[in-house]
Design brief:
This protein is α/β, with parallel strands linked by helices. The chain is 30% helix and 22% strand. It folds into two domains: 280 residues, Rossmann fold (3-Layer(aba) Sandwich), CATH 3.40.50.150; 53 residues, Ribosomal Protein L9, domain 1, CATH 3.40.5.100. Strands 2, 3, 4, 5, 6, 7, 8 and 9 form an eight-stranded mixed beta sheet that branches. A three-stranded antiparallel beta sheet has the order 13-10-14. Strands 1-15 form a two-stranded antiparallel ribbon. The chain is globular and about 60 Å long. Bound molecules: S-adenosylmethionine. The site of S-adenosylmethionine (SAM) has 25 residues, from helix 1 and helix 4.
Length: 365
């Protein structure tokens, strides 16, 4: 497993032929934490067809807030679980594109388009599945500046060229658009011996980036700082795998990144109006920023810009920072080591444990 073509072919083989259902997985990478869901999310996920759910290989919850009428792209959509949940949540006026390179995965996903269209009471499908590579999104037919939200669930780690994936994602997002994705990260840059392990690559372990590398890649491509939403441990139990990996540790992290204009908005006070369904009391934007309904919060230029150019712009009142603190809310660095964050959560008894892959509330093991 070294050059890019070998990696791509081996991953296709893994998800097309070797794995039949999530029970065939050999590590805990493809596990989704069981809590955190709003009622509409639970309803959307429990409406997804059982065969689609049985082939779910995600590692996080990639359903962000305020998706109604959005145009969503799922990178590495697999059998389509997240696409179908979002198909319900975006509504008939929204749309969802699932992009994947593996025929067998696309076949299962496409088989249930009519089923979900009927189930959601739509007159025409609002979801389509496209064959292509996440490193070449525009070649697959997705237009530049056309997407409101990109999601991806446990896929970018599988790519031999993560920078190309981020570059293409940035290209197809509209200004103010968001990349909201879950993926596996490592606490170090893995040695070649671990990188070359075919099964561990397929299991979303060997291709995991050192978490700091994601931050640099995102910056190089032009995204806002990656904001950590949640982090959960990824257990690797098998002795033969541990031998290959040494004492490297793994974490599944959900990050949100925005495509912003180059001229940032000034620092401001913002007041959340509490009108996003499911988030009336508060909007927990990332691990350190929660906006409570009606409460004025001073935000730095980057957050001020995110809130005023993204789909959240009508959900906030914007006011100048009160005199006295006049010009300056210092820029907030949101960088945090996800392993440190998990330790903090653990000490407060708030660390979510991974649940099984079929993660609707009633189907969870
Ligand atoms: C771990 S599975 C996750 C599938 C889906 N997101 C889910 O949550 O069930 C990885 C998926 O990404 C796809 N994939 C991996 N690398 C890809 C690439 N370079 N281009 C397109 N699809 C890719 C695989 O075919 C597979 O369906």
């Amino acid at each position: 497993m070294s050059d890019s073509t070998n990696i791509i072919e081996s991953v296709k083989e893994y998800y097309g032929k070797k794995l039949q259902t999530s029970d065939d997985l050999k590590t805990g990478a493809c596990m989704t934490p069981s809590k955190q869901m709003t009622k509409p999310m639970k309803e959307a996920l429990s409406a997804v067809h059982d065969e689609v759910l049985s082939k779910y290989y995600g590692c996080g919850l990639v359903i962000p807030e305020k998706v109604e009428r959005a145009c969503v792209l799922d990178l590495g959509s697999g059998s389509g679980r997240d696409c179908y949940a979002l198909s319900k949540l975006v509504g008939q006026e929204g749309s969802v594109i699932g992009l994947d390179m593996t025929d067998e995965q696309l076949e299962v996903a496409r088989k249930y388009i009519d089923y979900h269209t009927q189930k959601f009471g739509y007159s025409v499908p609002n979801v389509e599945f496209v064959k292509g590579y996440i490193e070449k999104i525009t070649e697959a037919g997705v237009k530049e500046n056309s997407i409101d939200i990109i999601i991806s669930n446990c896929v970018i780690n599988l790519s031999p060229d993560k920078k190309a994936v981020l570059r293409e994602a940035y290209k197809v997002l509209k200004e103010g658009g968001e990349l909201y994705f879950s993926d596996v990260y490592c606490d170090r840059d893995l040695p070649d011996s671990a990188r070359k392990h075919e099964v561990l690559w397929g299991e979303c372990i060997s291709g995991a980036l050192w978490w700091e590398d994601l931050l640099s890649l995102a910056k190089e491509v032009g995204f806002s700082q990656p904001r950590l939403v949640t982090a959960t441990p990824v257990p690797v139990e098998r002795a033969d795998f541990k031998q290959v990996l040494g004492d490297a540790r793994f974490v599944s992290v959900t990050y949100r990144l925005f495509k912003l204009p180059s001229a940032l908005q000034p620092t401001r006070q913002v007041i959340y109006n509490g009108e996003i369904p499911g988030y009336e009391g508060e909007l927990k934007f990332d691990h350190q920023q929660t906006f409570k309904n009606g409460e004025a919060v001073s935000v730095d230029k980057e957050m001020s810009t995110i809130l005023s150019v993204s789909r959240f712009k009508d959900e906030f009142d914007f006011q100048p920072v009160s005199s006295g603190s006049s010009c300056c809310v210092p820029a907030v660095e949101v960088k945090i080591d996800p392993f440190v964050y998990m330790a903090q959560l653990d000490s407060k008894g708030e660390l979510l444990s991974p649940a099984c892959c079929v993660s609707t509330t009633d189907k969870c093991c």
